[in-house]
Design a protein that fits this description.
Blueprint lengths: L1 H21 L4 H16 L3 H27 L23 H5 L2 H4 L3 E5 L6 H14 L4 E5 H13 L3 H8 L4 E7 L6 H14 L4 E6 L6 H5 L2 H13 L1 E5 L16 H9 L1
Parallel strand pairs: 1-4, 1-5, 2-3, 3-4
C-alpha cells in the first residue's frame, strides 16, 4: 500500500512538473513540493493549498519583472529609498513614503526635487524609480541634456511624434540635472514638447539645483520656461532639499556657488 502511494505521489509530481513547464511557470513545482507537507500538517483545504502555491508564483514573477524593469531603466546606480540618509533631509521624510506607494503614478502626477548639489536629489529620484518598477511601471532615467539629445536625434530623423508617443507608454520618466547646463532655443522647445506630451497622461520626476525662478535663464526664454513650469507643477509634489553637499562633508567646505545662487534666488 505504501509503495502504491509512493508511486502515485511520484506520478503526480511528474505530471505537475510537466504542467508547470507547459504554463512556463517552473517555480510552481518547487512551491508545491515545499508547501505540501505543511498543508497536510495544517489541514489546509485543496483551495487553500492551490492559492498558496499560485501566490508564490505570482510573487516570484512580480519580483523577476521588477528586476527586468530596473535594469532597463538606465538608472545611474541602484540606490533604494531605504539607503537614503533621512537625518540629513528631515523636511522631506514625511512626503516620500506616500510617493513610494506609487499613487502619484496612477494619477499622472509629477515629482520635482529642488536643492543644491549633493543633497540627495538623484538618490531620491532613483529610489522612487526603483519603487515604481516594483509597482509594475516601466521607467526611464536620463539627464536633461541626454533627453534633449535623444529628442533631437528623433527630430532629425523625422520621427519625433512617434518617439514622444512611445515614451508616453512609460509610466515614469526621470529627468535629472535640469539647470546644470543652459539650453539653446531648439533644445528648449524639444524639452517643452516632452513635458507637454506627458501632461496629465504620465508622470515625470525632475531634479534641479535651481529654484523655478532660475529656469528662464536655463531655457533661454521666460515664456517657454513659464509654460513648462505651469504644466510640470499643475499636478505635482515639489520637495525642497537643503544643506551642504554630502560629498563635501568633513572637507572643510561649507558652501558651493550654486548654493549661494539658490539662496539669493529664493
Amino acid at each position: 500500500m505504501a509503495a502504491k502511494t509512493t508511486t502515485a505521489a511520484a506520478e503526480a509530481v511528474k505530471q505537475l512538473t510537466y504542467l508547470a513547464a507547459a504554463l512556463k511557470a517552473p517555480r510552481i513545482t518547487e512551491a508545491a513540493s515545499r508547501l505540501a507537507d505543511h498543508a497536510r500538517d495544517a489541514g489546509w483545504t485543496h483551495e487553500e493549498y492551490l492559492a498558496a502555491v499560485l501566490e508564490r508564483e505570482v510573487a516570484a514573477r512580480s519580483a523577476s519583472g521588477a528586476q527586468l524593469r530596473i535594469r532597463a531603466a538606465g538608472l545611474p546606480a541602484r540606490k533604494s529609498l531605504e539607503e537614503f540618509d533621512w537625518d540629513a533631509q528631515p523636511a522631506v521624510r514625511q512626503q516620500v513614503p506616500a510617493l513610494a506607494s506609487g499613487a502619484f503614478l496612477a494619477e499622472a502626477r509629477n515629482v520635482v526635487l529642488l536643492g543644491p548639489p549633493g543633497t540627495g536629489k538623484t538618490h531620491l529620484a532613483t529610489g522612487l524609480g526603483i519603487a515604481a518598477a516594483h509597482h509594475g511601471h516601466r521607467v526611464l532615467f536620463a539627464t536633461a541634456t541626454e533627453w534633449v539629445t535623444r529628442l533631437a536625434e528623433a527630430h532629425r530623423a523625422g520621427r519625433l511624434p512617434h518617439e514622444l508617443t512611445r515614451l508616453r507608454r512609460y509610466g515614469l520618466i526621470i529627468v535629472d540635472e535640469v539647470g546644470y547646463l543652459p539650453f539653446e532655443q531648439d533644445a528648449a522647445n524639444l524639452f517643452f514638447q516632452l513635458v507637454s506630451s506627458r501632461y496629465e497622461h504620465a508622470s515625470l520626476i525632475l531634479t534641479s539645483n535651481l529654484p523655478f525662478s532660475g529656469w528662464g535663464a536655463v531655457f533661454g526664454d521666460q515664456a517657454v520656461a513659464a509654460a513648462m513650469i505651469d504644466r510640470v507643477v499643475h499636478h505635482a509634489d515639489v520637495l525642497t532639499l537643503k544643506g551642504a553637499s554630502y560629498r563635501l562633508r568633513n572637507r572643510g567646505i561649507d558652501t558651493l556657488p550654486s548654493i549661494k545662487t539658490q539662496e539669493t534666488a529664493h
